[in-house]
Amino acid sequence: MLAEIPTMAIDLVQIEDNSTVLADEFIAHRLGMLPLNAEGVENLFYSRDCDCDEYCDRCSVILSLHAKCTGDENMHVSARDLVPSGERISQTLGNPIISDPDGLGPLILKLRPGQEIKLKCIAKKGIAKEHAKWAPSAAIGFEYDPHNKLHHLDLWYEQDAKKEWPPSEYADWEEPPQEGEPFDYDAVPNRFYFNVETAGALPPDAIITEGIKVLQIKLAQMVKDLSEGDGDGNGAYDGPRSPEFGGGGADGWGGGQDPGFTTPYGNGGNQSAWGGAGAGGGTTPYGTTPYGGAGGSSW
Amino acid sequence: MNAPDRFELFLLQDGEKKITEKIFTGLSNTSDFILLKEDHTLGNLIAEHLKQAPHVLLAAYKIAHPNVPEVMIRVQTDGTITPRDALRQTCQTLVQMYFALGREFQKEFALRQFADQGDQGGAGNAGGQGGPY
């Protein structure tokens, strides 16, 4: 899920003046790759959801760059030279990430004496499914079972696999296999070691938390969509169950197992999923026709 | 230009529904669910958890073409609950599991940071573990 966490990246570039040796689109592409600070990006709209025509302060951050080489030496233009402007949601959102010791940030281009570059960048919110420049993480890896107890790996060796393969850095975190221990056929991996590396847009722990959140939103949306379908035949009847997951686990259908419960809507046509399972509600037990033959169930 | 919009991969177009259920007539108590604009992330996750859910006899997913962001999940239940309910329950359980995981992660992460501040340079011992997994 670490491909769907929203971050910031430069998406539009308006070039006013470019007398460098690099083509406009080449520079624009380089600018897009720059990591930008994405903390607080949840307060920003997606440009496509925003009311504005093209971009505005609520869905973008504007960075401008103006550099001219006036000296005799070649001049380096780096991410530090991008100046954020306009009203911003927070003072850090959309700032280029600068993590090198000199405080320059990534090098964008070089200018020969007399060359000039002037442009305006519009950084937008997006996810890495649209373009990889929005990826929050630089690298993510995971491993499990450092001692290969599950035999998911078949280690190649010349004389002795144990001597030739270096132990994983997580090897001390788990019990090494005992000598002559029988192989457990039923064992499944149940402990995973994740390695999350970022380019600085979000701290690694925020990426984990955000990733979990994105997944939860997806699943909750599914629960909602699945629950909505039930109400179709009954019009306004929404049921006492909250459509969200907050209602606490199983109560969505649990009501149906209450033998005393008969749904007053049952005869009208479509019985709701939980009413139908009750002894009184449906005409058909779920066993044979799964969808309760009673009346044109919409699903 | 006829290039498709870049967000067509993950945004529902007008009039598209996230989930459609199609009853599969080849097996009893079986439904196919078509999830639009989703990928292996959700397909694999849900299918694997459905397999562990009670009353579920069969759960599988496929993505017919890698260029087409559609997931099909087929669920067969033993008849006690509908496939739709099985899917919903699984999603609810998953949301709660992720909730627990997220909470546990934040707790352990804060503890870890606290511990690291306590003894700078102390060799990290197996303290940062936790979570339901």
TrEMBL record, chain A:
One of its GO terms (biological process) is transcription by RNA polymerase II. The keyword Transmembrane helix does not apply. Residues 230-299 are annotated as: Disordered. SUPFAM superfamilies: Insert subdomain of RNA polymerase alpha subunit, RBP11-like subunits of RNA polymerase. Its main location: nucleus. It is found in: Nucleus. Pfam families: RNA_pol_A_bac, RNA_pol_L. The keyword Transit peptide does not apply. Residues 1-225 form the DNA-directed RNA polymerase RpoA/D/Rpb3-type domain. Residues 245-258, 275-299 have a biased composition (Gly residues). GO terms for molecular function: DNA-directed RNA polymerase activity; protein dimerization activity. InterPro entries: DNA-dir_RNA_pol_insert, DNA-dir_RNA_pol_RpoA/D/Rpb3, RBP11-like, RNApol_insert_sf, Rpo3/RPB3_RNA_Pol_subunit. GO terms for cellular component: RNA polymerase II, core complex. It comes from the Eukaryota. CDD domains: RNAP_II_RPB3 (cd07031). Keywords: DNA-directed RNA polymerase, Nucleus, Transcription. Signal peptide: none annotated. Belongs to the archaeal Rpo3/eukaryotic RPB3 RNA polymerase subunit family. Component of the RNA polymerase II (Pol II) complex consisting of 12 subunits. This is DNA-directed RNA polymerase II subunit RPB3. It comes from Schizothecium vesticola.
UniProtKB/TrEMBL annotation, chain B:
GO terms for biological process: transcription by RNA polymerase II. Residues 31-98 form the DNA-directed RNA polymerase RBP11-like dimerisation domain. It comes from the Eukaryota. Keywords: DNA-directed RNA polymerase, Nucleus, Transcription. GO terms for molecular function: DNA binding; DNA-directed RNA polymerase activity; protein dimerization activity. GO terms for cellular component: RNA polymerase II, core complex. InterPro entries: RBP11, RBP11-like, RBP11-like_dimer, RNA_pol_Rpb11_13-16kDa_CS, Rpo11-like. It is found in: Nucleus. The keyword Nucleus applies. It holds the Pfam family RNA_pol_L_2. This is DNA-directed RNA polymerase.
